[in-house]
């Protein structure tokens, strides 16, 4: 069974998410822009998104995947809180949390 984080990484392009909130410009095989973290005043673009879906900020050193990016953009705690919020707001993934707290997936009709 695929876990929540793996499913989000497989189904969502981080560039599509970042592009709605950040001004990104091409830089070789990457895209760059200003860092989305509120405590990092990025005057020159130091935030890069790589083709494998990961990001890295050369100014503050923060890095991660699409869920970490969502947490930064929305001011959420990284981890399961951000993953659940992201899944319900951004994806077509339906989430059912059973009493055993196992995550199961169903396709949602939108």
| End-to-end gap | 24 Å
The name of the CATH superfamily reads: Zinc finger, CHC2-typedomain
Strand content: 15-25%
Q: Structural class of the helices, strands and pairings?
A: alpha+beta
Number of domains: 1
How much is the average pLDDT? 81
Largest sheet: 5 strands, antiparallel
The number of E-state strands comes to: 7
Radius of gyration over alpha carbons?
A: 15 Å
H/E series, N to C?
HHEEEEEHHEE
CATH 2nd-level architecture: Alpha-Beta Complex
CATH topology: DNA Primase, Chain A
**CATH top level label:** Alpha Beta
Shape: globular
Strand adjacency order, main sheet: 1-2-3-4-5
Unreliably modeled segments:
94-110
Helix content: 25-40%
Quick take:
With 110 residues, the protein is of the alpha+beta class. It has helices at 4-11, 14-21, 66-74, 80-90; strands at 25-27, 30-33, 47-49, 55-57, 63-64, 93-97, 103-107.
Q: What keywords describe this structure?
A:
two-stranded antiparallel sheet, 33% helix, globular, disordered C terminus, alpha+beta, 5-stranded antiparallel β-sheet, 110 residues, DNA Primase, Chain A, 7 strands, 4 helices
Plain-language structure description:
The protein is 33% helix and 23% strand. The longest helix has 11 residues. A five-stranded antiparallel β-sheet has the order 1-2-3-4-5. A two-stranded antiparallel ribbon has the order 6-7. The protein has four helices and seven strands; from the N terminus they run H-H-E-E-E-E-E-H-H-E-E. Helix 2 packs parallel to helix 3 and helix 3 packs across helix 4. It has one domain: Zinc finger, CHC2-typedomain (DNA Primase, Chain A). Strand 3 and strand 4 form a beta hairpin. It has 110 residues and is α+β, with helices and mostly antiparallel strands.
């Amino acid at each position: 069974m695929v876990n929540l984080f793996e499913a989000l990484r497989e189904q969502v392009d981080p560039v599509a998410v970042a592009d709605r909130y950040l001004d990104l410009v091409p830089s070789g095989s990457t895209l760059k822009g200003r860092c989305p973290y509120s405590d990092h005043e990025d005057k020159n673009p130091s935030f890069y998104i790589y083709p494998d879906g990961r990001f890295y900020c050369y100014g503050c050193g923060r890095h991660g995947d699409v869920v970490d990016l969502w947490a930064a953009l929305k001011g959420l705690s990284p981890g399961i809180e951000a993953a659940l919020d992201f899944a319900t707001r951004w994806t077509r993934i339906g989430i059912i949390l059973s009493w055993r707290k196992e995550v199961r997936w169903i396709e949602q009709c939108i």
